[in-house]
């Protein structure tokens, strides 16, 4: 195989009580990428459409992730990477993660799959380091593996893949405003009261349990973030109003996607998701802020070959 075309999915990280450790993969939003072998022993970004992003290999997350994979494999095969970018950078739904994960997935395939998908996470994380200065895994792990993934530990890296209840749907609203990841990190308090910590780990444990038992009501009760959301939500226009609409329309839970500005409503079934979608759209259309909105199933496999 000389060439491969793939779908690189968007992801929702920082899932409420799972701040910095829990993420899931979306199905209907993502980039397309074409990766082909070249005879130049060089990794090149040869085309980017959809967004204005760096073409230099060492400044593009896809290039950086592939270079670190090739270095690990001691491999001098060259590759040309084309990115059709449909996930806007800085949206909070893993734009950089999609490129990093998609690129290492494709290169691994073209090399005859020397590594398992889980082993690719560490190389995709190099792209995340370039994008945000922090090699986090809660977007790249779900992008590569699909479904819900928990980062139990970074040293050593341990990713726990969790089950995906089949009726879950995500409605994601992206207000087209800019929030710098650095700024949304800077306002987080560094100390947490014991009371809040107890509530948070109780909720996270319950949410994980609910994924296994498909207990949607328990998912709804536990999808809460008492630590980061109260501080960060002030950066997102009409956060409280959207949360109210989401609950009125019967969503299980509502929160900030990644470091924002996107927000998500987790829903049981297509009908509730359609109602939430309609109501969010109606509400935000009356405001002066442009937005994108998506409804998606949870993608169970991650990056896909097209
Ligand atoms: P997101 O959370 O949506 O990934 P970030 O703001 O964390 O958004 O990352 C986007 C940053 O990464 C931008 O500065 C962008 O220029 C840089 N970047 C480099 N290569 C890519 C790429 N292939 N896709 C997306 N962003 C990239």
From TrEMBL:
Function (record text): Catalyzes the ATP-dependent phosphorylation of L-homoserine to L-homoserine phosphate.
Gene Ontology molecular function, alphabetical: homoserine kinase activity
Classification via HAMAP family: Homoser_kinase
Annotated EC: 2.7.1.39
Keywords, comma-separated and alphabetical: Amino-acid biosynthesis, ATP-binding, Cytoplasm, Kinase, Nucleotide-binding, Threonine biosynthesis, Transferase
Organism: Christiangramia antarctica
Membrane-spanning ranges: none
Primary location: cytoplasm
Domain of life, source organism: Bacteria
Keyword Chaperone annotated: no
Record-annotated GHMP kinase C-terminal domain positions: 208-285
Annotated catalysed reactions: L-homoserine + ATP = O-phospho-L-homoserine + ADP + H(+)
Protein localization: Cytoplasm
Xref: InterPro entries: GHMP_kinase_C_dom, GHMP_kinase_C_sf, GHMP_kinase_N_dom, Homoserine_kinase, Ribosomal_Su5_D2-typ_SF, Ribsml_uS5_D2-typ_fold_subgr
Identification of the protein by name: Homoserine kinase
Family the UniProt entry places it in: Belongs to the GHMP kinase family. Homoserine kinase subfamily.
Domain GHMP kinase N-terminal, residue spans: 65-147
PANTHER family per the UniProt record, alphabetical: HOMOSERINE KINASE (PTHR20861:SF1), HOMOSERINE/4-DIPHOSPHOCYTIDYL-2-C-METHYL-D-ERYTHRITOL KINASE (PTHR20861)
UniProt KW Nucleotide-binding keyword: yes
Pathway: Amino-acid biosynthesis; L-threonine biosynthesis; L-threonine from L-aspartate: step 4/5
């Amino acid at each position: 195989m000389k060439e491969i075309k793939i779908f690189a999915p968007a992801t929702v990280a920082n899932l409420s009580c799972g701040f910095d450790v829990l993420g899931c993969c979306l199905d209907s939003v993502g980039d397309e990428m074409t990766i082909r072998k070249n005879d130049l022993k060089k990794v090149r970004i040869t085309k980017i459409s959809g967004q204005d992003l760096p073409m230099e290999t060492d400044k593009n997350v896809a290039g950086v992730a592939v270079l670190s994979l090739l270095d690990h494999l001691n491999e001098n095969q060259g590759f040309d990477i084309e990115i059709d970018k449909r996930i806007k950078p800085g949206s909070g739904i893993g734009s950089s993660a999609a490129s990093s994960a998609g690129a290492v997935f494709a290169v691994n395939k073209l090399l005859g799959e020397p590594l398992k998908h889980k082993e690719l996470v560490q190389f995709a994380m190099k792209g995340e380091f370039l994008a945000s200065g922090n090699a986090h895994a809660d977007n790249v792990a779900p992008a590569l593996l699909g479904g819900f993934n928990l980062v139990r530990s970074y040293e050593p890296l341990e990713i726990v893949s969790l089950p995906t209840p089949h009726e879950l749907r995500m409605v994601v609203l992206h207000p087209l405003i800019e929030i710098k990841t650095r700024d949304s990190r800077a306002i987080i308090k560094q100390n947490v009261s014991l009371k809040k910590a107890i509530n948070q780990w109780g909720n996270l444990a319950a949410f994980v349990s609910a994924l296994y038992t498909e207990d949607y009501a328990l998912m709804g009760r536990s999808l809460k973030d008492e630590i980061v959301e109260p501080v960060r939500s002030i950066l997102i226009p009409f956060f409280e109003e959207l949360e109210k609409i989401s609950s009125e329309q019967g969503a299980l839970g509502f929160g900030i996607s990644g470091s924002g500005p996107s927000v998500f409503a987790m829903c049981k079934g297509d009908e509730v998701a359609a109602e939430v979608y309609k109501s969010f759209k109606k509400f935000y259309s009356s405001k002066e802020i442009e937005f994108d909105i998506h409804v998606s199933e949870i993608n169970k496999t991650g990056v896909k070959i097209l």
